[in-house]
Prior knowledge:
It is a single chain. By secondary structure, the protein is mostly beta strands. The protein folds into two domains: 2-137, CATH 2.40.50.140; 152-197 and 217-329, Lipocalin (Beta Barrel). It has helices spanning 6-14, 75-80, 219-222, and strands at residues 2-4, 36-46, 53-58, 66-71, 93-99, 109-115, 121-123, 136-137, 162-163, 176-179, 210-212, 229-234, 239-244, 249-255, 271-276, 282-288, 298-304, 310-317, 323-329. Strand 17 (298-304) and strand 18 form a beta hairpin.
Amino acid sequence: MKIISSVVGSLLLVGAMPAAYAHHGWGGQYDTTKEVELSGVIKSVQWTNPHVTFKLLVDGGKPTEKLWTIESNSVSALVRMGIEKTNIPVGSTVKVSGFGPVSGANFGLFMNHMLLPTGKEVVFLRGAAPRWSDETIGNDDRLHGKVVEADINKRPSTVFSVWTTVYNDNNSHGMHLISGPAAAGMGGGGAGMAPAAAPAGNAPAKADDTIVVCTPKAMTQVMGSPYPIQLIEDAKNKKVILKVEENDTVREINITSAPHKAVGAPSLVGYSTGVLDASKKKLTVTTSNLVGSPDIVYTETFELSDDRNRLNYTTKASNSETVMGRYWQYQPGAFVGPYGCTNAKK
């Protein structure tokens, strides 16, 4: 039985161009210096986060027959590129190209292109040019932040909207240093942001004998993920609901002017209180009671940019002078989709 970890999934989610491979640790898994081409029949598809996989039967019925595991981006990224599950048709004979495993590894193939029986080509790797055909499926404009609402009056007037990551901008694609000492582990939250232990769960095997492992993450890690987020005002209950697509994470922020005091047992998202300014363009959040570091207090800000096209975010831990941050972009038609990944433990 093959178990796919969320660590691998987070690497594959990025779909980065060659310049970024080293940053995401691909060098230890796939040989990104050359592409491998395969032709075969698609036997099954697993359309799920943290990354899409399918089985490709090469040389079926021959002594050289081999069933390859083909991997691609996350469902979230592929949907934003206009690629759907139907573009990986089970039973069809296709040609694929991508990065094969490094010498001695057995990871299968990370797919960059697929040529369909119709002659159309699906381009899965963002930033990549078509390999075989002028008729293509797959557009990375959304991932690269090129889908913008031209009319400022149609952009959000408050922080309450769906916000998406811009993949080719390091100020958006994860946390970066705003001020203070250089932070360790910047992609996961930065200095002073201790990781929290994840609870174990159970997951049934898929049809192709694969268990998908999506390890729950602490608030400090999830806020640095490249998935869409959504802020929702629940004025009746004096709360703000923050949804992060990764792992279907939901945070409740209790709107109050009273001093922050955590209640309940420590959890992965902790306990949050917040102050929303009168214009609803800035939300200041205080969070503590995280598993593994319940006494560390985090101060977060969510603020609408002057052009109303970005949600700027900062975070600082009480045990560090480092301020980390990032931004998300407004894109018309964006949504937070279901992550749909079952937790499991090897």
